């Protein structure tokens, strides 16, 4: 098809039927001028743009802009009349491709990230948005695909992930060793310590534990982001889970004369990853300790709000949280109070990780709070959980 015929074909397909979504170039009354503006805009776009014809066999490409040709390395003659699948080469077993086919079949818009290959066979990551174009009566005219080469971004994300993983793993082993050595010193294994020495060892141990928690949080965060967080299910009683967490945090609470009140109103045997749920409950309880006033009480409850689920609640009498800040609480690297009055410490990942771990169990997490009246953090999970793991193959 010649260039002039191709343009005429496009004009005949789109004249008076830009889209049913919104009017285009309303101030331009002349159809020829409107088409010229649109075609020049598409031609000058930095994103690769293709238009396909779903009414022809195999939905072939009928238009490509120069940016697509630069991105893929193909000539216009090598592209026109072919289905876009040539960009995948032999790499056809991609999850995004199946999602793309389903969206096209349903005439729905979709954005997917695909591994594509240039004419010289080099890989590039394509963030592809495909949208249907309909006429005024809702009939399908074309599909338009907007390509965005995100190879640099993907490589940067991979480098950051590898950096986090390498640094975290290399830090965790020596930090664990240092913490163990400090604990032995505190117990007197290395000989008696003076009062001043004991305080220094205690301070070093506390800060080493904080660093180790930060490293573990980063590792967990990377696993969750990669979809490789595994659950190891076992039969567990709520009481055993709570006792495990309070045993770990009892000394921290005692420093500020904070007591715990435990009320177990649901004691069904749960099929859960005990260590991961203990991590969630420990995060919520540690936060309650951090923000509770001295000489106060923290309540930990289990209730059965609905059949088949158990709800854990951690209730404190701290400063409370404004409702406008609820949405920030479970986002990564978010700490809602940036003032000097905020209690120091924390990675900004704890609640985000807790949310992910609860959701992996098939549950949900939330907070009820009023400023000046304390907070209730809660999470609800199914008692029976059939999830084996969440790792991707």
Can you walk through the features of this model?
The strands form 3 sheets. Strands 2-1-5-4-3 form a 5-stranded antiparallel beta sheet, with helices on both faces. By secondary structure, it is α+β, with helices and mostly antiparallel strands. The protein has 3 domains: 3-149, PAS domain (Beta-Lactamase, 2-Layer Sandwich); 154-226; 234-382, Histidine kinase-like ATPase, C-terminal domain (Heat Shock Protein 90). It is elongated. It has 11 helices and 12 strands. The two termini are 45 Å apart.
In brief, what are we looking at here?
It is built from eleven helices and twelve strands.
CATH superfamily of the largest domain: Histidine kinase-like ATPase, C-terminal domain
Number of strands: 12
Oligomer: single chain
Q: What level of helicity do the residues show?
A: 40-55%
Question: Low-confidence stretches at least 5 residues in length (pLDDT < 50)?
Answer: 1-22, 338-344, 387-393
Principal-axes shape call = elongated
CATH architecture of the largest domain: 2-Layer Sandwich
Radius of gyration based on Cα positions: 29 Å
Sheet with the most strands, sense and barrel status: 5 strands, antiparallel
Mean pLDDT over all positions: 84
Feature tags:
12 strands, five-stranded mixed beta sheet, disordered N terminus, Heat Shock Protein 90, alpha+beta, 11 helices, Beta-Lactamase, 393 residues, disordered C terminus
Furnish the topology, listing elements before pairings:
Blueprint: H1 3-14, H2 31-44, E1 48-52, E2 61-64, H3 66-72, H4 76-79, H5 95-106, E3 110-117, E4 123-134, E5 140-149, H6 151-186, H7 195-226, E6 234-236, H8 238-254, E7 259-264, E8 270-272, H9 274-291, E9 297-303, E10 309-316, H10 326-329, H11 350-360, E11 364-369, E12 375-382
Parallel strand pairs: 7-9
Antiparallel strand pairs: 1-2, 1-5, 3-4, 4-5, 6-8, 9-10, 10-12, 11-12
Helix pairs in contact: 6-7, 7-11, 8-9, 9-11
